[in-house]
Every structure is written in C-alpha cells, then in structure tokens.
From TrEMBL, chain B:
Keywords: Membrane, Transmembrane, Transmembrane helix. InterPro entries: ABC-2_transporter-like. Pfam families: ABC2_membrane_6. The lineage of its organism: Bacteria, Bacillati, Actinomycetota, Actinomycetes, Kitasatosporales. It comes from the Bacteria. The chain crosses the membrane at residues 19-40, 60-79, 117-134, 140-163, 170-193, 235-256. This is ABC transporter permease.
Length: 282, 265
C-alpha cells in the first residue's frame, strides 16, 4: 500500500524529504523509459546540444568580423556564455517540464496529480523528465572549458569556489523563474511563452557583456528581475572587469542570497497559485 | 472555393488564442530588445557590415521578431498536427475527403500566418520603432511589396514544413527530423545573424538556399536593400523556390499515399 509513502507529520523537514524522494522516483522512472530507446535518446540529446550551440555559433560568426564586442574578447564573451548557459541548463534539466502546467490545467489532468499522496510540485517538476537536456549542459561546459584555458585568470581556490557557487546559485535563480512562471499559469493558462522571455531571453542577454546593453536594461535585470546575479556580477569580478552600474564590491557575492530570496518568493507564488486552483470546467 | 473557407477558419481559430498571442508578443518584444543591443554593439565595431547601416540592422532585428510566428521561423506553425494525424492514422480520413491534402494545409497555413502577421507582428514592430531609430519605408508601395514578399516566404516555409511532416509516413518518430529542420531554418534564414553579415562564401551560399526566401529577402525589401531589378530577382527567387518545393511536396505526397500503409491498415 501507499501508506509508507505518506509522511509522518513530524514537520517540514520530513515533508521536504518525502517530496524529494518522490521526485527522485518519478525521475528514475522517466530515465528508465527514455533509455529504453537508446538511439532516439542519443539523437535527441545531440539535437539539444546543437540547438544550444546555435547561440554560440552566432557569437563566433560575429567575432569572425570583429575583435571585441562591447570591449570584451571572444574568450571573455565565451565565459559569460558558458556560465549563463550552464545555469539555465541545470535549472532546465531539473524543472524544465514545469511549463507544461498550463496545458495540464486546461485539459484537467492536473486533478489527477492532486489526488496522489505526493506533493504536486514534485510531480509537476519531474513530469516527463527529459534527460536529453544534458545536451545543453554538455555544450555549456565545453564552451566554458575552452574559455577558461584562454582567459588570463589566476585560478586560486577562492576564485574556483566563486565560479562553482555562481553556477549553482544561478541555476537556483532560474529554477525560481521556472517555478514562478508555472505558478503564473494557474491564472493565465496559455501564457507559457511569457516565462521564455525570462529564461531563454534572459540567458541570451547574460551571454553578452553588460556593456552592450542600455543602462536602464541592465538596471532592470539587476534590481527588478535580478538575473544579473546569475553570472554577470561574479563573472565580471573573476575577469577583473568593473561592473557598469558601479555597485559596491560585495554585491558580486550576493548570488546565493538573491537565489534564496527568489526561491522563497517563487515558493510562495506556487502555494498561492495551487491553493487558488479551482479545476477546469464549470 | 472552399480553400478560402479553410484559410478564414484557420485565421479565426488562431484569433481565439488571445492570451497565447499576448504572451508571444511579450516574448518577441523582449528578444527584440536583447538582440537589438547586441547588433548595435556589432555594428558599432563594424559599421556597414553586410552593407547595412545601423538603422537597417536594427530594422532587421525587429522584422525578424515580427515575422517569427507568421513565417514559422522556429518551424512550428501548426503542421505538427499533420504529423500527429499521419502517426495516428487519422490521415486516412483526410485522404478520402474531396479536397487536395497539400492545398488544404497550405490554405490553413496561410490563414494562420495572416492572423499571426497582424496579431504577433504589428505590436513588436511598433515597440521597436518607438525605442529604436528604424529604417521603415515611407511609401506604401514598398510596404505592399514587402507583404507580397512575406506571403511568398510563408509559402516557402510551408512547403519545407510540409515535406518534413510527410516524412512521418516513413519515420515512426519525426521529432528528430523536425528538430534538425528547425535548426537549419533558424541558421539559414538569417534569424541568427543576417545572411549578408555571414563571413565570405558561407554568406553567398546561404543566400541561394530556400531558407533565405523566408526572412532575408522580405526584410531586404522592407529596408530598401533590394530595389528595382534586384527586388524583382528577389521575388522571382522566392517564387521559384516556392514552386519547386511545392512540386517536390506533391511528388512525395503521391509516393506516400500510393505506397505507404497508414498505421494499423
């Protein structure tokens, strides 16, 4: 029976552990089903790799005509590209299927998820878990690795730690955006594309140096939708570049704090959306 | 003719997806801003890259965003429904209807494109014109020629997507092919970078491929990079690819309906 899957009400920690365990089980199920068709999986992963690489091809094509873009060299832009894409790729792998929530609301299949003794968030997040999204992560790591060998940066332990923490907190920031976007779909079911502006559109922006964009736009992604903390601020520090807004130095280390705040906010939005959900039809 | 009714019905159908349209406009606009600034930086380093000045390059960005949905530059555009019908076997019902399969879907696609040109195209272009110095033509004749060129581009785009969908008669899972076709379209249409700004012979070859008819030629008409004889050559180029690809589609369709047994048949 499912009794062992129901959490003992011993508090939040047990609930979270239960949710994570359920997430892991559903993910494992999808991975098993994906790997049943190995050729198809390899092809789709390669496709994911190529789709992600297209953005970098655009950058390489640009640099075939110029030496610097906004005062940044190709390895520097590649570093920005790699960090932004890696963070997006990680969040996309873990939560990327959440944009299907709108269609689940529309066709009523969300109700099935509400009946199961597993947190809805874990079910929606793990729904159709797409292992092929490793393609984007692999592509990002390749570009990142190449840029690191070309950059003139002294990789001390502190700098390596900052880079790793940046990638993870950047992924958490994008995860919050995916969650908030899904929560928004409880109300606007057809609006799945809006979150693409912040995830894919935001990543495209972060792949280029901030000097390229108008100050107001940079202010917007620093203070309004704080995507600048995904990679811009820490990456500029690592490359020894000043940030165009002239923020105090400690702002470069705010990534984890911003990520925590955004995740908390997205969590609240999700709870609110789920509670307000009144199913489909009359 | 009933194909007009199909086109009108398709137009109305897409007009009912109001929230999705608004969401798409928002996303096109955000991408327009981001890409416009990267092009500004590129053209600051290399003024007159590809023969475009700054205003022309910016207009290219916003035209691409305005045509993204209408010309199906990411290769969606509703033909995945045809693919689903082929896979499920519902296509058998379509085939014994007294209407031509290709013309039916072409009519539906033109109706869709007509709505998306208005619903998804006008607003991003207007926002772009508000915030950036665009190079938009003043005389209505150029706009009409632009619309004609866009229509030809949609036909080429349809013909390519139709071919990809028909492959589902032979492939069990068309997802891989659709993905590759979509990537090719993004790259060779000029969506990633205007084809004229491609380095060397890559740019010359890319401008001969069918994808150039979808975005590059219409945009060149709009920003005045093609006029006179060059404009006529552009339109002829689009029409030639349209006719050739539609003819190829008919051949494949004939082979598919003659030799292939639909699922479960």
């Amino acid at each position: 029976m499912a009794s062992e899957a129901v959490p003992e009400r011993s508090g939040r920690a047990a609930e979270v552990a239960h949710g994570l365990r359920a997430y892991g089980l559903i993910v494992r199920m999808w991975i098993r089903s994906t790997l049943a068709y190995r050729t198809s999986f390899v092809l789709m992963a390669l496709g994911n790799f190529a789709a992600s690489a297209l953005d970098f091809v655009a950058i390489v094509l640009m640099f075939s005509q110029i030496d610097a873009l906004g005062g940044f060299t190709l390895p520097e832009v590649a570093f920005l590209y790699g960090t932004a894409t890696l963070s997006l790729g990680l969040a996309d792998l873990l939560l990327g299927s959440m944009d299907r929530l709108g269609s689940r609301v529309r066709d009523g299949t969300l109700d099935t998820l509400l009946l199961r003794p597993v947190p809805v968030f874990a079910q929606v997040a793990a729904d159709r878990f797409a292992l092929r999204r490793l393609g984007r992560i692999g592509q990002a790591l390749l570009v990142l690795g190449w840029s690191v060998t070309r950059l003139d940066v002294d990789w001390t332990a502190g700098r390596v730690l900052l880079a790793v923490v940046t990638a993870l907190s950047g992924a958490a920031i994008f995860a919050a955006v995916f969650t908030a976007g899904a929560a928004f779909q409880f109300w606007a079911q057809d609006a799945a594309e809006v979150q693409n502006s912040f995830t894919y559109g935001g990543t495209t922006m972060l792949q280029y140096p901030p000097t390229v964009f108008a100050k107001d736009l940079v202010r917007g992604v620093t203070f309004l939708v704080p995507l600048a903390f995904v990679n811009w601020l820490p990456a500029l520090r690592l490359m020894g570049r000043p940030d165009p807004l002239g923020l105090p130095g400690w702002a470069d280390f705010l990534g984890p704090a911003v990520a925590a705040l955004m995740c908390a906010g997205a969590g609240l939005a999700w709870r609110h959306g789920l509670r307000a959900y009144r199913s489909t039809g009359s | 003719m009933w194909y007009t009714a199909v086109a009108a019905g398709s137009f109305r159908r897409y007009a009912t997806y109001r929230i999705a349209t608004a969401a798409g406009v928002f996303t096109n606009t955000v991408f327009g801003f981001v890409i416009a600034y990267t092009y500004l930086a590129l053209w600051a380093e290399r003024p007159h890259l590809g023969g475009y000045d700054r205003a022309q390059a910016l207009t290219f960005v916003w035209t691409a965003q305005a045509l993204l949905a209408a010309s199906a530059l990411l290769f969606g555009g509703g033909l995945d429904e045809l693919q689903t019908r082929i896979r499920s076997g519902d296509i058998a019902v379509d085939l014994y209807r007294p209407a031509d399969l290709q013309l039916w879907w072409l009519a539906a696609d033109l109706g869709r494109a007509g709505f998306q040109l208005i619903g998804r195209g006008v607003a991003p272009m207007a926002v772009g014109a508000l915030f950036f110095p665009l190079d938009l033509p003043a005389d209505p004749a150029t706009w009409l020629l632009f619309l004609l060129s866009v229509a030809l581009g949609v036909v080429v785009s349809f013909a390519l997507r139709y071919l990809v969908s028909l492959a589902s008669f032979w492939l069990l899972d068309g997802a891989g092919l659709a993905l590759i076709a979509g990537l090719a379209c993004m790259f060779f249409s000029g969506m990633v970078l205007p084809l004229r700004a491609f380095p060397g012979s890559l740019g010359e070859v890319a401008q001969l491929l069918p994808w150039a008819a979808i975005l590059q030629v219409p945009t060149d008409v709009l920003i005045g990079a093609r006029s006179g004889a060059s404009l006529l050559r552009g339109l002829a180029f689009q029409a030639a690819w349209g006719v050739a690809l539609l003819a190829l589609g008919r051949l494949v369709q004939a082979a598919a309906t003659r030799k292939v047994v639909v699922q479960g048949g």
